[in-house]
Amino acid sequence: KDLLLRVEGLKTYFFQRNAVLKAVDGVSFTVGQGEAVGLVGESGSGKTMTCLSLMRLVPQPGARIVGGEIWFKGDNLLELSEHEMREYRGHRMAIIMQDPQTSLNPVYTVGEQVAEPVRLHLKERGQQAMARVLESLRAVRIPRPELRVGQYPHQFSGGMRQRVVAAMGLTTQPELLIADEPTTSLDVTIQAQFLRLIRELQQESGTSVIWVTHDLGIVAQMCDRVNVMYAGRIVESGRVRQIYKEPQHPYTRALLDSVPLMGARRDQLYQIEGQPPDLRSIPEGCPFWPRCPEAMDKCREQYPPRTSLGGQDFVHCWLAEPGG
Ligand code: SF4
């Protein structure tokens, strides 16, 4: 597949009074056109900060992108002016966040909010804009959109609100959609419907999607490839089928072992021992060693190099090195 996005050595740090928190520390990955790529890991692994960095929306003050490149086709987004970047946000790339409450403004109608990116980026107004708004609400399967455009967010259920947020993100037909745990606040049935919907829209429009999640079940359903993040870095990357069949990194194996299987009892689920490291003082060597059942002396001393697993697939673990 042709590349849409290529991230190289991205670093985003938080500068605190007495410490530097390395939230994203040398992340590299690619997204092909029309491809769905997962970014998985526990909370605090740097997934969301990676996505906010792609949009150049890192929290201010405090966070700064300190290194790397983000190539969107021929443009390095980190070299664009703020004005040029605004053209990208909401137009060529859009983000759907976890909680629709924070993405929707309670004092504007749903129609006004979905129309906003249409006005801003497509410069459409009046009836033309309204036609596009209705089309987007129909696309996300909101019943009777002519009636619903005049209503306020509180008049929608949680699942319907998340659809409105998706409509806002998709209305300008972005080339890249970042979905940051968009189903966390939804119950299981609504979640399944929402996932199916995004999958269909993706297939219809050819949009590329980055799925940010801690849920490997969602990755299995939605993604072609997956990047596993730990302590601000990608520790394993590969095709979903391959990684589920033969995970190479002990952390990936642990994540897969903690996925509830049909019929498995919750109390029998494997729990990953210990806590992710404090990003202000990441241990020397492989950051996973304090929790890794297979850690060796070498793991405590040196960060494992990138070992290619063929194609674009790779892992950072001493076990995968020759003689490991
Ligand atoms: Fe475990 Fe060592 Fe591999 Fe890190 S490098 S995951 S500590 S075996």
UniProtKB/TrEMBL annotation:
GO terms (BP aspect): peptide transport
An example Gene Ontology molecular-function term: ATP hydrolysis activity
Record's keyword terms, sorted: ATP-binding, Cell membrane, Membrane, Nucleotide-binding, Transport
CDD domains xrefs: ABC_NikE_OppD_transporters (cd03257)
Pfam entry (one): ABC_tran
GO cellular component terms, A-Z: plasma membrane
Subcellular location: Cell membrane
Domain (ABC transporter): residue spans on this chain: 5-256
Topology relative to the membrane: Peripheral membrane protein
PANTHER family on file: DIPEPTIDE TRANSPORT ATP-BINDING PROTEIN DPPD, OLIGOPEPTIDE TRANSPORT ATP-BINDING PROTEIN APPD
NCBIfam families listed in its UniProt record: oligo_HPY (TIGR01727)
Protein name according to UniProt: Probable peptide ABC transporter ATP-binding protein y4tR
Species in which this protein is naturally found: Geodia barretti
Lineage: Eukaryota, Metazoa, Porifera, Demospongiae, Heteroscleromorpha
